[in-house]
Amino acid sequence: MQLNETHDPQRRSWVESANREGCEFPVQNLPFGVFRRKGAKGARIVTRAEGVYLWDSDGNKTLDAMSGLWCVNVGYGRKELAEAAYRQMLETATQLNTPGLKLADMEGVHALTDVTGFGLLGHLLEICRGSKLQARLDFDRVPILSAARHLVEAGYATGASDRNWASCREEVELPAEWPEWRRKILTDPQTSGGLLVACDAATAPAVLEVFRQEKFQHAARIGTFSSGAPRITVT
């Protein structure tokens, strides 16, 4: 039985690699990707995408259920990958913040705090309030566990994340139309989180080197401080 012309085994794709013998995604699979409501005329125009969501020109938000179906099925369905994500979480949570001993005596380092129950935004705001400074946080530079984004997007987040946000939201500015999962990660409570350091710009390379010597390979510069009323601007 042939469902429609796209299931014709002789049909060829304009993407040459899809025509190769043994291709895992030949053109015959493409009907799954048609972006149009059943019975509607014409195609919907996608104007924006974020994670697994799409927005069309009419402002409709759609879950792109097929965008990662096979890789998720093959990936998270494999026991060794699920175990790897769990192992990464344990290794991160049990790694002691040993760099603090060296950084406390380093010239150019002004403040240190471990990121725990109030999440990154909460503890960064504590530094801003104590120093009477404002901070600019670059989300793309924040180290995140490999599986965290997908889990938060799927709805796996703690109640404390929302409570942390309620306690600091008046002093935090997020980008317009920011996806909720990003905010939840920044307010996620860390039982044994990373070490947050405020230092001179010229001292930052030496600070990062201390982290690397102590085997914190994902340490990164995530933002800057400037004069102004205590608050955080996330970019």
Q: What's the SSE blueprint?
A:
Blueprint: E1 46-50, E2 53-56, E3 61-63, H1 69-75, H2 79-93, H3 99-103, E4 109-114, H4 119-131, E5 133-137, H5 148-153, H6 159-168, E6 172-173, H7 180-186, E7 195-199, H8 204-213, E8 223-227, E9 231-234
Parallel strand pairs: 5-9, 6-9
Antiparallel strand pairs: 1-2, 2-3, 4-7, 5-8
Largest sheet: 4 strands, mixed
Indicate the proportion of strand residues. Answer: 15-25%
Determine the CATH superfamily of the largest domain: PurM-like C-terminal domain
Which residues sit in consecutive blocks of at least 5 with pLDDT less than 50? 30-34, 68-74
Give the distance, in angstroms, between the N- and C-terminal Cα atoms: 53 Å
Tally of separate domains: 2
Number of strands: 9
Helical proportion? 25-40%
Helix and strand sequence: EEEHHHEHEHHEHEHEE
- The CATH topology of the largest domain turns out to be Phosphoribosyl-aminoimidazole Synthetase, Chain A, domain 2
CATH class of the largest domain: Alpha Beta
Q: Write down the overall geometry.
A: globular
The tally of helices reads 8
Strand arrangement within the widest β-sheet reads: 6-9-5-8
Rg computed from alpha carbons, rounded to a whole number of angstroms? 23 Å
Task: Write down the overall mean pLDDT.
Answer: 79
Supply the CATH architecture of the largest domain.
Answer: Alpha-Beta Complex
Assign the structural class, choosing from mainly alpha, mainly beta, alpha/beta, alpha+beta, or little secondary structure: alpha/beta
